[in-house]
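Q: Joint fold for the lines below.
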Amino acid sequence: MAAAVAGAHGTRDHEGMEQPSAQDVSAPGRIASPGEGIDPQELALAARNHGLPLEALRYEVTPPGLHYVLVHYDIPAADPAGWSLGVGGRVRTPLALGLADLRAFPAVTHRVTMECAGNGRARLTPRPVSQPWLVEAVGTAEWTGVPLRLVLAEAGVRADAVEAVFTGADHGIERGVEQDYRRSLPVATATGDDPEVLIAYAMNGLPLPPQHGCPLRLVVPGWYGMAHVKWLREITLVDAPFTGFQQVVAYRYRSAADGPDDPGEPVTLIAPRALMVPPGFPDFMSRTRVVRPGPVPLEGRAWSGHGAVDRVEVSADGGRSWARAEVTAPGRHPWAWQAWSCVWTATPGHHTLTVRATDTEGGTQPLEQPWNRGGFGNNLVQHVPVLCC
Amino acid sequence: MAAAVAGAHGTRDHEGMEQPSAQDVSAPGRIASPGEGIDPQELALAARNHGLPLEALRYEVTPPGLHYVLVHYDIPAADPAGWSLGVGGRVRTPLALGLADLRAFPAVTHRVTMECAGNGRARLTPRPVSQPWLVEAVGTAEWTGVPLRLVLAEAGVRADAVEAVFTGADHGIERGVEQDYRRSLPVATATGDDPEVLIAYAMNGLPLPPQHGCPLRLVVPGWYGMAHVKWLREITLVDAPFTGFQQVVAYRYRSAADGPDDPGEPVTLIAPRALMVPPGFPDFMSRTRVVRPGPVPLEGRAWSGHGAVDRVEVSADGGRSWARAEVTAPGRHPWAWQAWSCVWTATPGHHTLTVRATDTEGGTQPLEQPWNRGGFGNNLVQHVPVLCC
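A: Joint structure:
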């Protein structure tokens, strides 16, 4: 039995007149001042969310706990046994599906590389204040579930539906807007099979962990993480484009020149990126690497949401000259990262290693990062400082 | 097959004379300037290590991926099949034990709450620059393994042994000292059964994940995390107190008044702490909580390495008045956190909730944080800003 605590008296605002509202806890987006360090709010996000320690790029499938996690609000307390996924709106037969119902559909497993759209944000100058990722917001998992198109076929999508809206159980406030986390996909994407979107109930062969959407999440191969709605509880077919916060306010590319009312461009597919397992061993604090002179094997992973990775190049002189690395073929896993490797001959002194991926569509990584207000899709090449001695 | 990259020429130091050394990548410890935000090196640590999202305090045993992780250097690439744990030094029979050998000993499972000694460091003023934890560097797991005392009995500890030194496979540099991660315990602790120290090979019933020490780690119930050596590959009995970096340089309590050569006091047992599941729902960026007026159930966990938690108190007025919460008895798990709960009657306005644990030894949490140079053992009470509206 719980004990009781007497409540303190409510406070009024500074004019002593109005009752507070939920908007009071939520500030508009902002850009850090020149030279401003990471602030306490950004630190609180960095402490609860986490990236992939880069040495974990050595694993083709990321072990549990090393895959990146971004949670907008709180991880909901989910009861898998009582969970019900509603499918409604512009459908002929609204559905309410429990986990057993979903497991009765054919099960499909896809190996998918997932990346946060904000990866790289903390390297921007000036820095948009939000989750401060450097380069590590990525991971690859085997996701098992039901193809979304099969569930939508069962419900019968009406001809006037243009989008499917996905609602998660996570609830919070963002820039003054109280909301359930909610995102949409065009009907053609939701009912298509390239990529095949999943309603996933397992990750690496086990039920979804709480932080990855237990008991159900969307998996949209090739798209940045914001599309993979976690703790999925409702799918609503709608006859007009969805205008919710995460669709038209957040997750848009807006340039410095755009006004505050500029709609920007939607964030969708993952831009190409290669990352390296930092060679040698690190200093605890600076993370600078130390290697011995001679041949140093370099390896890592590369991926793109726009197609296979065609080419990975490595530079040991800060991007002045590049050498091609070996890249594995995508093979049976078209939506997963590809391994690359090469050998670098280290000589005594300080070096900066750089790696760059180019996909089959010709997309590649910039050496100077373009800037956008939200800090999305930042695929500036990785820089790995190394001392050879 | 890997391609080859031509090495850039080595660089000389700024005087053009000397070859670089590994010390060049490693700076002395430092204290942040007044008002200095989290720097890029601290951010890099925060992005790769991670805490427990506070809502995960709802789980009595922390699910995989939510338990805090601190890795000094890199997670080693371990091969469990070929792993060998050496036991040597001042013993009668040196041992080399594979995983099968260890599994042939009696298996014991202990539920243990583990906390990083640096938890709370980022709330200190001024802030020691290192892994910038707020309050979330904690977790509770079921650890299964062999009691260390049984392995040491098999080796036969010689009468002149005073400490056991534990060596991990993680290698790096810290403040200019290249090292394998290495810590010691007094022989009485290593061979004792209160607490019973484990050589653990499983966490929550599964083989250790890479980031938690795969395939072997030490578990020292009641001690801060630095004692629980991960990727354990060597146990060496020694006839003089161990003077390695992690024992006599790092992980010492040193006050502001102490000189740089002051040995300080060793960091050992976990100080008492209570944490609350933040009630209501959050703002994404500020993490401020929103609740509705009326009774609000509050719950959380409390622990101490010095004994059971005797009392948990909650304040809704910033620490002026306190009310007792209900606390579960430690029961069958003396080294795990205890659950606490109470009900707070929320009234409209801004509030700060605070919770404080006191253990059976009389140890409790400060309302004003004492300061030490390394930022260790900071158990200042948690503050949870809440808006009721």
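Q: Anything notable?
A: Residues 273-388 of chain A form a domain with the Immunoglobulin-like fold (CATH 2.60.40.650). The first strand of chain A starts at residue 3 and ends at 5.
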